[in-house]
Each structure stands twice: as structure tokens, then as C-alpha cells.
Specification:
This protein has about 325 residues and is mainly α. The protein has 2 domains: about 35 residues, no CATH class; about 280 residues, no CATH class. The chain contains 12 helices and no strands. Helix 5 crosses helix 8. Its main location: membrane.
Amino acid sequence: MTFNATIPLYDSMYPATDFSSLSWLEQQWVAWYVRIGSPILATSIMSFLLHEFVYFGRAIPWIIIDSMPYFRKWKLQPKKVPTAAEQWECTKQVLISHFTIELPLIGLFQPTAEALGMKTYHVPFPAWQTMIPQIFLFFCFEDFFHFVAHQALHYGPLYRHIHKIHHKYSAPFGLAAEYAHPAEVFILGAGTILGPLIYCYFTTNLHIFTVYIWIVLRLFQAIDAHSGYDFPWSLHNIIPFWSGAEHHDFHHMAFTNNFSTSFRWWDMICGTDTKYREYRAKVRAAKEAMKNASEDDVKILEQKLMDEVEAEGIRAEAEAERGGPIEKTVKVQ
């Protein structure tokens, strides 16, 4: 995009701005807002395009990984690889939510944000020293919001009519991060955007560029948590309190436990990870007991433990959908 400081809008939107002192990115930012001419429209278009490019751009590598048998050794549920048909069905549902829920809400975001004092078209961008603690606060707020709202969505009517869609896949994959009922996209998505809005309300010291970095990181977190893969270099192996795919995959497999998103601490504090920790302990004990066994025998045992957890999860899901316990004679398939 051409940067041309002679256009009159530069004077009205950026009076007394030394454009030569701006970074290349900041100059492109200015040029974008001047080219569109309306901060509301410019922010809305940029917000929607950012979300689409980041979401599908981050999901594509996982689609490629799912198609390559080499990576199965790191897949948490190796027998459950999404088919092309499942990937396409998931894409269609995600796009429906994006265009019916997110796009209209994005149109309301910019005027709301500016009314609360958030900077949008303004330059220069805030320093990293300012943005990093803000983004960390947003992670903490969203994690707690999601922890509470996610458990509510496991309650009978809310699960039956809303959250059930997201639990279609007991072995999630990257694209399935936002595979959900539009109402769930609205409910859980609120945790992503309310944090910045509340922070801005109390401080009036927030730039939308910081919010964009937060949203990109949040999308990466959500997609990676649904990837279904646990690599030695996965973040939770470096930062112990980070959730990651290994943590969230169990939630889809067992239906219960592990309701948080980014961090493990709320599940630990509230005891909503007991089954998960018991399962991991069983896996470790089984591997230790079979350290001299063949690799195939170890895989068979691991699959047996996963099948047991999933069977309990099917029963737990049926109870949640019904809104109460079911008879033990219910057949689990």
C-alpha cells in the first residue's frame, strides 16, 4: 500500500505527526486507515481479515500434519485421524459462525472500543514493555472466563442445545477449535474481547494493535490445543502450567475435566482435573511396568487405557445431555 502524506486525510487524522519517525509497519497502518477513510470501516475490515487469515493459516499446517503418517507417533489419539470429509464439514460450520456471529459483532467493536478510549488508527504503537503485561492479563482473564463458562455449557440444556456440536469429535483437530454452535462462539468468544474492553474502560491506555497481538496468540493457543498432537517441544513441556493439546485432548476424550484454556491452575485449584491426573498416572505406571515390552505391546496397552476413558466419557456425556445420572445398564459403544 502506497504511503502518501500529501493526501488531506493525513492532516485531519494525523495532525503534527512526524511520519519519517514511524516504522514501516506503522506507516502501512496509517496508509490503510487513510485509504479506507473511515476508522470504523477500516478497523472492521482489518479485524475480520486478520481473524480469517490467522485462523485458517494456523490450521493448514495441522491439516498437512494429519495427512502424514510420520507424525502419528506424536498424535495423542493415533487411531483417530480426521478425514477430508470431516475437515470440510468442520470448515463449513466454522465459516457459518464467522459470518453470522463474528462479522456483525466486529462491526460493533470499533465504536465500542473507541467509546471506551481504545486507540485504533493512532500511531505510534505502544512499546513492548507496555503490551506484554496487558496481553498476560488478557490471557488470565480469558482463562478464568472460559473455565467458568465452559463448565456451564456442560449443563443439560446448554450442552444439549449448544455445546454438543463442539464435542462431536472425541479426538479434536486444529480446524475444530471454533467448530461450535454460533451461540457458543458468542459466549466463549466474549472472554477474548471482554478482557481488553474492561481493561480499556478502567485505564484508557490500550491500543488495538495490542489487542490484535492478543487475538493472534489466542487463536494460536486455541488451534494448537485442539491439534491432537503432543511434541517434545510443545509449550507445556517447557512451561508446566500451560495447558496445550495434551491437556485439552483429554477433555474431548473423557468429556469431563480440564475446562480451562491456556493455563492448568484453575482446574488444579478447583479439582476438575482429578480424572486427568489419574489417567496420566496410569499411563506412566503402565509404561514403567512394560519398559521391557515391545513397542506394539505398549501401544496396545495405551489404547486400552484410552478406550476405557472414552467409554466413561460417553457415559458422562449422556448424563450431561440428560441433565442427571443414567442407569449403569446403558450400553456404551
